[in-house]
């Protein structure tokens, strides 16, 4: 089973609600022994999709999918 997950949240515009959410996630992670190993202030999934499209123009969509599958197999 994979021990990693990636999620992107659209945070509330209201600072109080945003901090309450982030602090809640942090508390939940601490309670269950989850280590945060990375983070970003940007939508990294959209960035990856942009790279995917650009890469597909150079090696084809099938080539991009092959790379994804090789990566996933190596991480299992």
SSE arrangement:
Blueprint: H1 15-31, H2 44-59, H3 61-74
Radius of gyration: 17 Å
Number of helices: 3
- What coarse outline follows from CA principal-axis ratios? flat
| Biggest sheet character | none
How many angstroms separate the termini? 7 Å
Class by alpha and beta content: mainly alpha
The quaternary state of the protein chains shown equals single chain
Mean pLDDT level: 89
Order of SSEs, N→C?
Answer: HHH
Q: Quick recap of the structure?
A:
The protein is mostly helical and 76 residues long. It has helices spanning 15-31, 44-59, 61-74. It is built from 3 helices and no strands.
Structure description:
With 76 residues, this protein is mainly α. It has a domain of 37 residues. The chain is built from three helices and no strands. α2 crosses α3. The longest helix is centred in the first third of the chain and has 17 residues. It is flat and about 45 Å long. The model has no long low-confidence stretch (mean pLDDT 89).
Descriptive keywords:
76 residues; mainly alpha; 3 helices; 62% helix; 0% strand
């Amino acid at each position: 089973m994979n021990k990693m997950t990636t999620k992107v949240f659209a945070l509330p515009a209201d600072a109080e609600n945003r901090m309450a959410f982030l602090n809640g996630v942090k508390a939940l992670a601490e309670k269950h022994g989850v280590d945060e190993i990375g983070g970003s202030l940007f939508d990294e999934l959209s960035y990856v999709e942009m790279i995917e499209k650009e890469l597909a123009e150079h090696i084809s969509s099938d080539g991009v999918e092959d790379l994804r599958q090789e990566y996933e197999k190596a991480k299992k």
